[in-house]
Structure formats: structure tokens, C-alpha cells
Amino acid sequence: MEIKRCVRCGGFFETANEVCNICVQKDNKDLGKLKNFLDGYSIGKVTKKDVSANTGITMKNLNRFLAGEEFAGVHIPETIESNVDKVEKVIVKV
Length: 94
Ligand SMILES: [Zn+2]
Description:
Elements: E1 3-5, E2 12-14, H1 21-40, E3 44-45, H2 48-55, H3 59-66, E4 74-75, E5 89-90, E6 92-93
Parallel strand pairs: 3-5
Antiparallel strand pairs: 1-2, 4-6
């Protein structure tokens, strides 16, 4: 096995994964929260900041999750300009 540096905690470990065994569990927890949150926002506009604030997932981890295959086609903007009055929320699926 390869020695890698965990992208989440920075620890060195032996694995084929991106994160260490401890962080895999944290990742799974975060991913569950992320999916639940996105389910509730299928109609509407939501920013990464909203997601981070509501799920407690750090921007760093959020960006990593969203870059993954699982979320391919899901585009969440960093910010939304001038849509303060709109209640509607949209996640754009490309
Ligand atoms: Zn780790």
C-alpha cells in the first residue's frame, strides 16, 4: 500500500483512499448531512456558504465533496448576487 497524506487531517497513513480511516467516518457523516441538505433544496438557489453554515461542513471539505464524481453536474455557486427577495432556491444540474 501507498503512504499518503490525509487531505482532511493531514496525517500520514497507508491506504488507497484520499483520507485516513478516522476521517473516512467524518467524511461519511458530512456527506450524509450534505445530501440531506441538498435534498431539501432541490427547488431553489443555495450558495456554498449556505451549505457550509447549515451543515457545519467546512468550505475546504465542501469543495472536495462537490468535486467528487457523486456530485458531478451539481453546481452550487459561491455567492448569489441580487437575489435577496427570491425565496425560490435552485440547484442547477448540468
Ligand atoms: Zn485524517
